[in-house]
Each structure stands twice: as C-alpha cells, then as structure tokens.
Amino acid sequence: GPPSPAHRPRVCSRVRSRNSALSLLDPWPYLPSFPPSRRGRYWRCCSRGAPGSVMGSRASTLLRDEELEEIKKETGCEFGQITRLYSRFTSLDKGENGTLSREDFQRIPELAINPLGDRIINAFFPEGEDQVNFRGFMRTLAHFRPIEDNEKSKDVNGPEPLNSRSNKLHFAFRLYDLDKDDKISRDELLQVLRMMVGVNISDEQLGSIADRTIQEADQDGDSAISFTEFVKVLEKVDVEQKMSIRFLH
C-alpha cells in the first residue's frame, strides 16, 4: 500500500532541507529494514524458547550441508545466520513451495509503507522471474551485510564479496535505473522523487531538483547519470554504513 500521510511531511522536509541536489542520490534514503515484527525479533538469534526456535531447528534439517556451504561461500554469512534467515524465509512463504512471490514481500509492513518498496522488492527477483528461491533471497540480502574489519584484509585476488562498496553502489544504482540502460535519466530520477515526496512538492519543483541534480553529476554531457558518475557523486558518502543491516546478530 502507499505510504501513510504521517510519513509524507517527514520525507518532504527531508528533500527540501538538502543543501545540494546531489545529496538526493543518497544510495539508501529508505533502508529496506526487516525489524522485529509482532511475531518477535525474527532476524535475531532464536533462543531461550523464543517463538522462532522450533523454526530454526526445522531450517537446519531442511537445508542440506552442501547448500549451506555454497550459500556461506557465496554470501559470507555463517551457518547459524543462514539457518535463522531460512526460518524467516519459510515464515514468509505462505504457499509453502520453497519460493517467495512479490505478494509475500508485500505482506511485510515495513515494505508496504516504504515509498521505494516496489523497487526494493523487484531487486529480489531475477529478470523475467516472479518467484525467488532461498538462495536468491540470500544473495540479495548479502548486499546489506556489514563489512567487518577482518574482511577488509582478505585476499584481494578472491571474488569480490556481495557486500563490497562497489556492489552496494551497483545495487543502489539499479533502484534508479529502471530500464537497465546503465544510466539514470531525468525521467527515472523524477519517478524516484515522486515516490519519495508524493504530492507535497509541485511537478515544477521536482523538475528543478532533477535538473540540478543531473547538471551537477553529469560529466560527459549526455544529460544522464552513469554508474561512474554516480560513484563519483557518492565518493565521500559512507555507503558501507548506510547500506548495512544489523540483522545477523
């Protein structure tokens, strides 16, 4: 559903208070949080008889050892973290078919009221697919895993982790680049602005903000923002902190 009116003024003032149009390209104005729900702290360790403890045991038995190892290698998550996230995955899987649909994600209240909720949800699904399995679910969430200090010194010749700064920025860029042409056009930027502020700012004002943002970011004169230009704009932004979810404790 659309954001409630209570959310609108805060979003609107946030945009109007910016000193620079470039700051509108903040890669994560609305982090897709999965905070505790009425059912309990479902991203945290289920222990001491918590409601999810049985589900955690079930997850351990349903995930084969080879699957756990592959997901661990691909995402950097530990086995215990994977099984806890599998518990949450199965609780969202209302059809009990081992995959999630967009409707399953839309039942998460925090995404339902998020102005960018639909785009966040779409990021979980491969091109042309309308279902995502657990491994795909984990690959997407892995982008938001915090970068620990001991990870920064790992073998630089190994594969780039999904939660690297570059991959976090690629993920954010794709939220704007809907047509996947590797550029953020004025129209695409306007769509995001309208989602964020609703009817609180006129189309003329939104157009002015979009024009100024592109003017300041565009270095090659094509009236759009490439990924390289996007990265340049955000070079001083703490992307690692802004695009991390502490859900794996």
UniProtKB/TrEMBL annotation:
GO biological process terms on file: protein transport
UniProt-annotated location(s): Cell membrane; Cytoplasm; Nucleus
Pfam families named in the record: EF-hand_7
SMART domains linked to this entry: EFh
Domain EF-hand: residue ranges: 164-199, 205-240
Keyword entries, A-Z: Calcium, Cell membrane, Cytoplasm, Lipoprotein, Membrane, Metal-binding, Myristate, Nucleus, Phosphoprotein, Protein transport, Repeat, Transport
Cellular-component GO terms for this entry: cytoplasm; nucleus; plasma membrane
Domain of life: Eukaryota
Keyword Membrane: yes
GO MF annotations, alphabetized: calcium ion binding
InterPro entries, alphabetized: Calcineurin_B_homologous, EF-hand-dom_pair, EF_Hand_1_Ca_BS, EF_hand_dom
Family: Belongs to the calcineurin regulatory subunit family. CHP subfamily.
Protein name: Calcineurin B homologous protein 1
Organism expressing this protein natively: Galemys pyrenaicus
Lineage of source species: Eukaryota, Metazoa, Chordata, Craniata, Vertebrata
